[in-house]
């Protein structure tokens, strides 16, 4: 059944986040040959419409309003609901990011619709769109379907394949004017702590440190390794609690959920709350001096040893690999 | 201040998980208050102690949740309400739960509603914002700080590690993130007192809800455990050789670098 499916493009620092392209991929599956319509909200975002189209959206609806310059659930809900009202879609996909987690249940509440959150894969099976998502901190998975109303899902970053970008693709870009009013929450200040560079939740390689890193300086060798691999640095809560690094690096149930191609855990014991944030990574490497550490139970490759010896050696070895490549 | 806490009884995910009859096997498993809801209960108690008023903890579930409600009372909540759906609902989703909670809350004149930002079992994080939408009150999710000054509220919200300082007003719903506070353990006198505190039990009928009104919009068709990962390869030999081997494995076998 061909459907019309909306995708919210999430803009961060003037650019679309990767998860939005993955959401387009998800929407394409749900649409089953129907139309994928990108939605962009912001103060000045129309220039990004072409990006959504080149990445697979058939057309884009832009809602521009100064009151949408920053995300607020009131502002964005009004914007998205107005587009839903005018487009009458059968599906909606949003990234399972901070923004998506905050906004989506609100929209579902308003529409009295279902919502399948934190989806990691989507298939068409026997006429149903079947969504797979992790439950119980990633220890199990469930398959879900929507039985009534809008097919609405949020997708976990780095799990669903984006479509191939095609710079020759064109599509209609229209604007919808929406009167945004009554913002009941006002952002007074944003304290940016997340480090510059590669976005942790979207990085292909993550080098993470735990309490075993022992100090703020202890993170230096990890940073060097991450840099050589073009990846991002992450941390366990143990390391954050001990003030070796900022909480913005925390990976796990409370922190970020990451699914990179390669996750290198250094001096992390592998508590379930940590695993909840990284166990779906494609390849996991553990470096820990305790051979009994739980992290080895989820690791594909492990080295039992002192991270302060192993990590710099790894960095050197990867450098050689890059030179030879 | 009239404060409500949305609480869920959850399977302790630190436990081993197995599946029987297409469901997560709950026999002999440990059940706890969802950890993020513990932050919510603690915050509610602190707000009440500072501002006066009353804390009511609500849960939607089965009779078995009475234990977790008593724990919340022992921590210091004043009242508990169990909305027991065991006999009425075979299957529910977040739409169901939020609708029931909102129906209960709609005439309670709540000033502040606090929930956890996510439950560690289902992990969807939908119920808080859905309830706020149904009650038509503002909400802020994943908060790490809450300050109330008259009807002005300042909250700090965790946004993927960055912080937003947000100003809003009562009535308000917030969801708790780790870092909001350190939940207390129930004290022995607290546990004794909790036995005498009111714990009301309601059913859908009492809220004038029919099963059809709260029928789930989604359905779980299968639950499964992840494919047993092949036992990882712990490398051996001289450290320098291990490192070389690892790089070669990642490059040639796993092909991730
Ligand atoms: C509600 C709740 C939410 C939580 N959320 C999260 C979360 O989101 N993320 C998270 O990570 N945790 C979370 N936790 C905490 C979690 O339970 C663990 O306490 C935490 O992950 C432990 O961090 P760690 O592995 O760095 O420290 P530890 O458990 O102390 O492990 C340190 C490891 O380093 C190794 N080591 C020490 N020195 C060296 C060395 N020189 N070389 C190599 N290895 C070395 C040790 O052998 C040990 O295995 C949460 C807990 C709760 C209750």
TrEMBL record, chain A:
Q: From the Swiss-Prot or TrEMBL record, what is one GO molecular function term?
A: electron transfer activity
Any idea which UniProt keywords this protein has? Electron transport, FAD, Flavoprotein, Transport
Task: Specify whether Transferase is a keyword of the entry.
Answer: no
Q: How is the cofactor bound?
A: Binds 1 FAD per dimer.
Residue span(s) of domain Electron transfer flavoprotein alpha/beta-subunit N-terminal: 5-195
Asked if the Swiss-Prot or TrEMBL record annotates the protein with the keyword Glycoprotein, the reply is no
Tell me the cofactors it needs: FAD
Report the InterPro entries cross-referenced here. DHS-like_NAD/FAD-binding_dom, ETF_a/b_N, ETF_a/FixB, ETF_alpha_N, ETF_asu_C, ETF_asu_C_CS, Rossmann-like_a/b/a_fold
Gene3D superfamilies in UniProt: HUPs (3.40.50.620), TPP-binding domain (3.40.50.1220)
Q: Name one Pfam family in it.
A: ETF
Q: Which residues bind FAD?
A: 211, 236-237, 250-254, 267-274, 288
- Read off the CDD domains from this record: ETF_alpha
* An annotated GO BP: fatty acid beta-oxidation using acyl-CoA dehydrogenase
Similarity field: Belongs to the ETF alpha-subunit/FixB family.
Protein's name in the database = Electron transfer flavoprotein subunit alpha/FixB family protein
Source organism (scientific name): Bacillus yapensis
From TrEMBL, chain B:
- Can the keyword Transport be found in this entry's annotation? yes
Q: Which GO terms describe its biological process?
A: carboxylic acid catabolic process
Keywords attached to this entry:
Electron transport, Transport
Which molecular function terms from Gene Ontology are attached? electron transfer activity
Which Pfam families does the record associate with it? ETF
* Residue ranges of every copy of the Electron transfer flavoprotein alpha/beta-subunit N-terminal domain listed in the record: 21-211
Q: Name the chain's protein.
A: Electron transfer flavoprotein subunit beta
